[in-house]
Amino acid sequence: MKIFVINLDKSTDRLSHMTAQIDRLGYAWERFSALGPAQVEEMSRTLDLPLFRGTCSAGEKGAALSHYSIWKKVVEEGIDDALVLEDDVHFCRDARSLIDSLNEKISRGFRYDIVKMETSLAGIIIDRKGLNLSARTGLHRLRSNHTGAGAYLISREGCRKMIERFSASDRAVDLVMFSGDLEATHIYQLHPAPCIQDVWLKSGKKGIASVIGEERAEWRPGSVWVQRAKVPFRGVYDFLQTLRVWNRGLVKIRSCYKDGI
């Protein structure tokens, strides 16, 4: 498993935050320099992607292209599995044991495309039956939208699928990954989630400044905020469609984060 931390060159406070956490976990990791406006502009001249014609902000385009670039790297370099992290993530105390347990399942043939390791504390639909990773944490198929791309494990095949999906979409990266046709991919959710982004914490926030958030302040028709506003309504539809399936249920994904690792 290779670990990538997406971080803008100017966000040194966020890099320090992630360095301290992952070093305490004891993993080797690689910083991936997030793409800024200049790189986005350059890529827009060489790549024909719907993203460049959509309504995402410059920051969201940079974030999306950063994830996209990591997926390409995984495929091109033949990396089996990658843990992709944005730089405002918090880990719970038992994150190391959960990640190790997940790696063991994968080494024994567990098939997946993406494992979502974070929560936005929203109500979502997952399979009731799951694979136990610990006494209190399970691995469940994700059956409804769950926004956020702050922490996820992705396989090489998952990267291929996301590259294909991304190449046909103009939406923000988390909407590309975790909404729409989830049946075409093997996407799992860790429950409770071992990771949570700073913005969702009810207590213990680091107050890490959101680089992208400043560009999302303005609500404009057709913007990604409108897309996100529609997500709960799609979630209601998903829920109604799954009421008849006995082994699925509406769950509010908790975070096991309390006071850090």
Automatic annotation (TrEMBL):
It comes from the Bacteria. Residues 2-177 form the Glycosyl transferase family domain. The keyword Transferase applies. Keywords: Lipopolysaccharide biosynthesis, Transferase. Pfam families: Glyco_transf_25. GO terms for biological process: lipopolysaccharide biosynthetic process. One of its GO terms (molecular function) is transferase activity. This is Glycosyl transferase.
